[in-house]
Structures are given as C-alpha cells and as structure tokens.
C-alpha cells in the first residue's frame, strides 16, 4: 500500500490575520496562528492560510483535518528560545539521541493527529533552533531543535514549501502511517527528514542540501517504546547534496562548502535500527558532492527487500554504497541480530569516489542475497593522503590475512570504520549469495600512470573474505588494473566468473 495523499475538500478556511497575526517579524504570532488552527478544527477541519509576511513563532500545534497553507512570500520564522513547548519525558530515550526522543520541543508539532497537511510556496525558517546535542541543554531552557515533529500521526502530506535554518532535524516523523512528502526544498545544516518507525511513506521530487548531516534518513528506533519497523518506503526523484553552505541553495547564492567541512549529506538507512526495515525503494535519485548511500542495521532489526535503482552519484566523499550488518545493539535487552537479505542494486553510476563499494556482515551472520546489475564505478585518482583507503600501497607485500581489516562488530557504522581497505572497487566479507552482472570499472588515471601504480602496489579490484555463492558476469575492468581479486581469498573457489574483459 502506497502512502495516501490528502485529498479531502476543506470545510473551512481562515486567515491567520483574522485571529490577530501581524507578520512583521518582530511581534510573536504564535497565539494567533494557534487560534486560527483551533477555530478551523472546531468546525471539523479546514485550511489555515498564512499570507505573505514574516511570522515569528514558537510551537504551533497541528490538529485533525487541518491544512496549514503558506502563501508565496510567507515566512514562519523561529522565535528565540524560552517559550517553546517543553520536551516530554521519554523513558526510552537512552536508546536514541535526544532529538529523536522528543517531539513537543519543535516549531510545528503534531502528536496523534490525522488528515493533516502543510502546503504552499512559503518558507519555514529554523534559524536559531538548536543544532542538537546529547541531553540538549537548549531544550531545557525552553528551546527547540526541530522545525516539524510528528508522532503517531496518520495521513500526513508535506508539499511545496521550503525549509531552511539551523535545526538538529528539519522534519522528524516517528510512528507515522501514510506520509507523503513532495516538492520540498530542504536547505538546513543537519538532518533533512528523519523517517523513524513509519509505514507507507513516499518522499519524491524534492531537493536537499544538508552539508553537516543526512538528507533523507530512515530509522527504526525504540523512541516509541514498542516494536515498530519502518516498512514500505519509496524515495524517488530526489536530489541530494552537501555541497553548499546551509541556506545558500534556497536563496540562490550557492556558496560552495569544501569536502573537509563536515560533508555528510546522503540517503541512508540506519543508524538506529532495533526494529528493522522492509520493502524500501530508492530510485531515480541524484547524489552529488556528498557521501554515498549506506544501508545498515546494527541494533538487532532486520533489513530486507531493499531496491536501489536508477541512481546517479557524483563526487562521492566515501563509498558509493556501504552495506553493514553490525551488533552495536543500542536497543532493549532482548534485541538479537536479524536477517540482512534481499538487496537489489540496478542501473547505478558513480563517478568520483574515495573508498570501494563495501559489503560487510559479521562472522557467522552473513549479509545474504545481494545483486548488483548494470553498475558503473569510475574512481578518480586523488593524492595518497586524500585517497581514503581506496588504494593500499602496502598490499603488494602482505598476504590477504595480513591486510584483513578489523571486524569492529559494535562500532558506530560508517564507511571508513575499518580503516584502509585492500580493494579498489569492491570489498565484501561475510556474504552469502552475491550476484554481479554488467559491472563497468574505470579509473581517472592515465593508462601509463595506472600501469606503473599497479606494478608497484597491485591491490586487487575486489577483495573477498567468507563469501559463498558469488557469481560475476560481464565485467569490464581497465587495462593494467592489476589482479582481479585477492589470490588467497577463502571465497575464491566458489566465485564463478562469466565474461570478464579488459577495456
């Protein structure tokens, strides 16, 4: 079942100015906006219109059946800390960060509401909100760290407007059923949209610039205190980057940010993952000047039936894809490692990356049934100090066992967590069932330089450990690229090569 779109005709329409809002950017308009929402809700729901103006506000409360409509030129602006709703107690907050454990300390809050929407061509600006720290001191002083927070809501639509500012999270959706997000421009410092323990979600046709954290992140935490996986999510036709200073994409300045200035924008599953993920599709998206796409479960939940297709990645600062099964187990005491299986990647192109595509399970608990089909990987050469582990000069003098990176089963999962990897394009260990067909590998190095480099340090294209049932067909690798895979790999007897050629 796909996420539904709010279509009900409004039974009432009210202008916030009729309830005393002035929109001058100086006088708080919180009470007037909430009064307009309450008036519409008393009539069974309807549209609350916010005309052009600058509306300073603390916490706004969504109600059943309400559409909050921001007209072009309307700006909802975060008021200074001091009068936001206090964060509510949550005895489960030790299992996830502070920002993901509370909802009332936000600019716009909806708890248990249904049939609601935020729409229009206006802007919601969270400048001045907390960037989020563990046990956030700002929230304890009447501050807020989220622009929009939704908990256990049903049938929610967010579409057409712009989100800017400095919050920890622009949109937090926890335990939401039937969520439709479309045509948003999200240009914030940290998380764009966090989808936690939700079902039937569509995120489409949206732009994200989040240089210091994730753009679209799926989680399945224990913030609600009961088992609820994230299931049936479609992410499609979205553009994701960390390439600009926050706010400068929305206002047209497009101020570039360097790769070493905290670039983390990406589409991501995990880290919080104690209840797992099922039926997730990421398709026809562009990820540019950012990190790659990680699919991770480390807190005990399963990760199953994920499709990644039609993806363009450019100037990736770590690995194009990072598949990780771990055992951090930041979860209730009865959490156990569950299956990571059924990952299909098709029609993916990555030009420019620093680390090899990585698939890493655990000893005795393999990632299962991974397929890569029609994948292009083009590795641009970088200076050795910037290479990030994609090329290991000392690999020539070491056996496969000597260069095996540490397992780090309980470490925080991210590409680069294992240190330098002994492969240039693909690192796979603890995997059962790996099918690769139509793989194109290229490097930006000139052929002569590449031949000299591989002669002195022939790190393999692929490195395998504890991989069973691998099938390769139709692989194109560059001339003089060195060995295809590590010679004494434990999986080598079970690797079946189809047509492999040197371009």
Task: Provide structural commentary.
The protein has 503 residues and is mainly β. The chain has a domain at 291-503. It contains three helices and 35 strands. Helix 2 (400-403) links the parallel strand 31 and strand 32. The chain is elongated and about 75 Å long.
The portion of residues forming beta strands comes to 35-45%
- Count the DSSP helices: 3
The end-to-end span amounts to 45 Å
Q: Class by helix and strand content?
A: mainly beta
Shape summary:
elongated
Q: Rg, please?
A: 24 Å
| Portion in helices | under 10%
Mean pLDDT, to the nearest integer, reads 89
Number of strands: 35
User: Low-confidence segments, ≥5 residues, pLDDT <50?
Assistant: 1-10, 382-401
Describe, in short, the structure shown.
The protein is mainly beta and 503 residues long. The protein contains three helices and 35 strands.
Based on the model shown, name its key terms:
about 5% helix; disordered N terminus; 28-stranded parallel β-sheet; 35 strands; single chain; about 500 residues; mainly beta
